[in-house]
Amino acid sequence: MKHFIEKNFIVIIAVLTLLTFLKSCGDGRELSKIRKEIETIKDSTYTKEELNVRLKIEGLKSEKRMIQSTDRKILDVNRQTQIDEEINRLENSIK
Asked: Do 83 and 39 reside in the same domain of the chain?
């Protein structure tokens, strides 16, 4: 085996190099798929302003859930109404 490798070393390296080259030819198609996926992700993500509005909406919703889980007083009911109005205003500003 050692004698065979020593005798055909150049041929073996040439074949391995050729196989490596042929394998790398398909990478262009893979790169185009990756680019399309990146564009899809960019289109579906929020901008910084949209993210801030979404975070504010979720914070208001959690505040409303907290108020609903405690004893209801007239101030709490008024605050829930204010929260609902603010959530609607923020959701409309996104659209």
From this structure: no
